[in-house]
Write a structure and sequence with these properties.
The chain is 41% helix and 24% strand. The protein is of the alpha/beta class. The longest helix is centred in the C-terminal third of the chain and has 16 residues. The chain binds adenosine-5'-diphosphate and magnesium ion (MG).
């Protein structure tokens, strides 16, 4: 295996008095689909925003593709694609207009851009929505436009914050397949979720994060072996104790009862 694409040592992030990240150590390799799994408020969004250089940290060491997330912010933004938890889209543009706008900001050559927009629209099955104002699209279609806008410059590091949440099962499947394809190309994917089933189905390795700390990390098989139990739900319960679990369990139950 080559050099890790993401290296994090003893990362601490305080928001005033609140310690959101409390000493994160992590190395992620090219080709991984890495899942950050934790209940709401555990620090997932904070971590992902630091990695893609849109949030500063308090102390620690963070390198992405050998670059410093603070000093080399411009470079990091070129090689990363970030899908935020709540994407900002221009409601009065159509997806075609919006993606052309993003593509021009990213300085993607015109013909390349047109080809990519067409092929993403096809892959996500939104060809019929491409010339409708974003403001009048469904939540799931907006989410797809946001995902496409984060992938259009073909980033080597892909960071998705709860990106499956608004997607119907078919669209979620399309995204999973795309991520698997990207990982086969050697790209690095980091994915946060509080939905166990999502982590279980896409990630090559999982870190369970709780109160700003990584409480367990490994492949699903390794996590299972260590805990001696079969289900990710049990591992998660053991790793995070009995408190603060209701959102995760609730979402798990919702997933299972569908
Ligand atoms: P997650 O994405 O796992 O739900 P977050 O990273 O959003 O967790 O939040 C981690 C903790 O930091 C939470 O306690 C949250 O309330 C707090 N937090 C997040 N963003 C801010 C902020 N901008 N200012 C103050 N506290 C914040
Ligand atoms: Mg979050």
């Amino acid at each position: 295996m080559g050099k890790p694409s993401i290296v994090v040592h003893n990362l601490i992030k305080n928001y005033g008095q609140l310690r959101a990240l409390d000493g994160i150590d992590l190395e992620i390799n090219p080709g991984e689909v890495f899942g950050l799994l934790g209940p709401n408020g555990s620090g997932k969004t904070t971590f992902l925003r630091i990695v893609c250089s849109i949030l500063d940290y308090t102390t620690g060491y963070v390198r992405v593709s050998g670059l410093d997330v603070v000093k080399d912010s411009m470079e990091i933004k070129k090689i990363t694609g970030y899908v935020p938890e709540t994407p900002v889209l221009y409601e009065s543009l159509t997806p075609t207009e919006f993606l052309n706008f993003i593509g021009s900001v990213r300085r993607i050559e015109h013909n390349t851009l047109a080809r990519r927009i067409e092929s993403f629209a096809h892959a996500f099955e939104i060809e019929d929505n491409m010339n409708t104002f974003i403001g009048s699209l469904s939540f799931g279609t907006k989410q797809k436009v946001a995902i496409i806008s984060s992938l259009i410059h073909d980033p080597e590091i892909i960071i998705l914050d709860e990106a499956m949440n608004g997607l119907d099962p078919r669209s979620a499947r399309i995204l999973k397949n795309l991520l698997t394809e990207y990982s086969a190309q050697g790209k690095t994917i980091i994915f946060s979720t509080h939905v166990l089933e999502v982590a279980e189905s896409v990630c090559t390795r999982i870190a369970i994060i709780y109160k700003g700390r990584i409480v367990d990390i490994g492949t699903l098989a390794e996590l299972r072996q260590r805990s001696g139990s079969k289900r990710l739900e049990d591992i998660f319960l053991e790793a995070t104790g009995e408190g603060d679990l209701s959102p995760v369990i609730k979402s798990l139950k919702e997933t299972m009862s569908r």
